[in-house]
Amino acid sequence: MKRLQKPILAEGEVTGHAHQIDAAVDVFEADDGTRVFANSVPVTVKHEEHGAVEVPAGSHVSGKVVEYDHFAEESKQVPD
Fold first, then answer.
1. pTM, rounded to two decimals
2. What is the C-alpha separation between 74 and 38, in angstroms, rounded?
3. How far is CA 63 from the centre of its chain?
4. What is the pLDDT of residues 4-43, one digit of tens each?
5. How many structural domains comprise the chain?
6. Cα–Cα distance between 32 and 44 in angstroms, integer?
7. Average pLDDT for 39-54
8. Domain range holding 70?
9. Could you give the CA distance from residue 35 to residue 20 in angstroms, rounded to a whole number?
10. Model pLDDT, residue 44
11. Alpha-carbon distance 79 to 24, whole Å?
């Protein structure tokens, strides 16, 4: 796992916006793109186009959202 320079959980592929933690938290990225972090106090995740989300203290894993198209019988990543 590598430590990221900024506390970003996901970067938008379409708009360039990011889901970013508003506190000094170390975020690590695994080889598969999964990002993990631990916080001892609640933190807020902000995004330029969505409402802010408060994340309680604890250890967290952030992955990519995938949707499955039953008609095409395929799954694809949901773009941000």
1. 0.70
2. 33
3. 6
4. 998 988 877 666 678 889 988 999 999 988 899 999 999 9
5. 1
6. 24
7. 88
8. 2-77
9. 12
10. 92
11. 27
